Amino acid sequence: MRSAHFISFSLFFQVSGALYRQWIPDTNFNNATNWDKGRIPCENDRVQFLRDQSVSVLVQSPLNLMEMYMPLDGEIILSHGAGFAASDGQSESGCKRGEDITFKDPNQYKWYDPKYWHTALSMSDLENEKYLFTLDEEGVPCQYDDVIFRPGTSFRVDLDSDIQIINVKTISIMNRKFASNDEFAEHQWSNTGKLQFQGNGSIAVTNTKCEDKSGCECGNFDNHRRICSNLQQGSENHFPGLLCTSPLKPQGHCSKVCGAIIYLEYGPQFDLESYRAQLGFSFLGLKYEGVQMSVTKVYKKQSSKKIIPTDAVPRIQIVLIDEVKSAPGTLAAELAEEIMEDITSRGDTFGIINAELRKSSNSEDQFGGNMNAGKIVGIVAGAFIAALLIGNLIYLIASGRIRAKISSAVIKFRKYNQFENEEAADQGFRNVVYGSSVHLSPDSNDLYSGENTITIVTGQSGTNFANPLFEQDFNEESC
Ligand SMILES: *[C@@H]1O[C@H](CO)[C@@H](O)[C@H](O)[C@H]1NC(C)=O
Ligand SMILES: *[C@@H]1O[C@H](CO)[C@@H](O)[C@H](O)[C@H]1NC(C)=O
C-alpha cells in the first residue's frame, strides 16, 4: 500500500488540474495577530476567550499567566516544552500594567474565502512561497486538490457551503495525510475535529484525481456567490476601480478585469497541464513578468432560447491580467497577441482547434489605434497648453504668489488607513469557566503526537472551582 501510494504521488505532476492548497490563518496562542491587542498576552494580563465560542488553541512556549477565562468548549494543545505556570505578579519589562486581552473571534475564517488560501503547483513551491495566481472561484480548493493545514498550527475553519459535501483529493493536518474518507470522517467527528471544522458543509476525502487530461471542473460553481461575498468582506480594496474602458468578465471570477481572455476549442489530443506549462515556459519570462495568467477549463453556456442551458460546451479559458496598475491591460494584451500568433503557427500540435481573443480596451489603445491624425494633433496641442498652465502654476507657488493647499482628501485618506480599535470585547465574562472534565490528551488521535491536549468541556455556567492547570506541571512530556 505504501509504495503504491508513493508512486501515485510522484506521478502527480502529470495529473490535470490538481493543485496544492494551504490554509493560512491559525489559532495559535503565540500568534500576536490572534489577539485583540495585537500582541501575545503578558503575565499580568487577564486573558479571555469569547465565551460562547469553541476553539482549539496550540501553545508553543511556556506561559506565565495570572488569569485566564476559557471558552465554552475548547482545547489547549501544548507543544513540547510549553506549559502553564501561575504568575507571581511581578511585572516584566514592557508588560507593566495588566490589561484585558481577548482572543479574536475564531469563527471568522471561512473555507470559501480565497483570502485564506495559498495555491501552488507542488509542495516545494508552497514551501518556497511560489504561489499561483487563480481566478476567485478557484482561489479555494477544487475537488481534485490536496489540502494542507500547516504542521505546528491549530486552526478553525467555517465550512458553510451551498453544497453539502465538499470534495477534496487528500487533506493533511499536523503532518498526518488523510487519503481515506473513513479515516478523515473519524477525525472530523472527533472532539478535536469538531473544534477545527464547523459549519453546515462537510469535507469528503475522495483520493481520486482528475482523469480528463483536458482538465476537470473545479466544482466551486455552486458557491460562486458565497466566495465573492466572503472575498469582499473586510477588504474594500479587492475590487478597485478599473482603469480600462471596456473591462472583461472572466468566468469564475468575481470582478471584471483589464487585460485579455483567450477561449480555446480543443480536440482529444489537448492536454491542459502540458499546455499550461508550455505557456509559462514560452511567454512568462522577463518581458511579461508583471502579467498574471490563469488557464482553466470552463463550461461556456451556449446562447440558446431554452430556459435550462442543456449543452454547455467546455472551453479552455486563458485569462491574462496586468499586475501593474499604471497601464492596465496593455502588457497582457500584448502577450495575448503573441499567444494567438503562436496558436496560429502551431496550435494544432497541442490539439487546439480554434481560438478567440477578447481584449479590454483602455485609453491608450484608443489613442494609438482608433484615432485619426487630426484628433491626435488636437490632443498634442491641448497637452502642450496644459503643460504651460501647470508650469505657470508651479512658478506662482514657488514664488509665493499662491499658497498651496494640501487637499483635505489626502488627510482623510490617511486617517482612514489608521489602525482602528477592535470592537470592545465586553462579552460579560462572569466566571472562570473551566469545565468539569479537564483531562490530558486521551483522544487526540495521535495527531499532535508528543503534545499534550487539554480539553475543556464546560459544566454549568457559574461553576467555580480550583484551576487544575495551575496546579500541575505540564512541562513533562507524556510520550
Ligand atoms: C499568524 O496569523 C496570521 C493570520 O492568521 C498568519 O498570516 C501568519 O502567518 C501567522 N504567523 C505565524 C508566525 O504563523
Ligand atoms: C448552509 O447554510 C446556508 C445559510 O447560512 C444556506 O444558504 C446553505 O444552503 C446551507 N447549506 C447546506 C448544505 O445546507
Automatic annotation (TrEMBL):
The chain crosses the membrane at residues 376-398. It comes from the Eukaryota. Residues 1-18 form the signal peptide. Coiled coil: none annotated. One of its GO terms (cellular component) is apical plasma membrane. Its main location: membrane. The keyword Ion transport does not apply. It is found in: Cell membrane. GO terms for biological process: protein transport; receptor-mediated endocytosis. The keyword Oxidoreductase does not apply. Keywords: Cell membrane, Membrane, Protein transport, Signal, Transmembrane, Transmembrane helix, Transport. It is a single-pass type I membrane protein. Pfam families: Amnionless. This is Protein amnionless. It comes from Scyliorhinus torazame (Cloudy catshark).
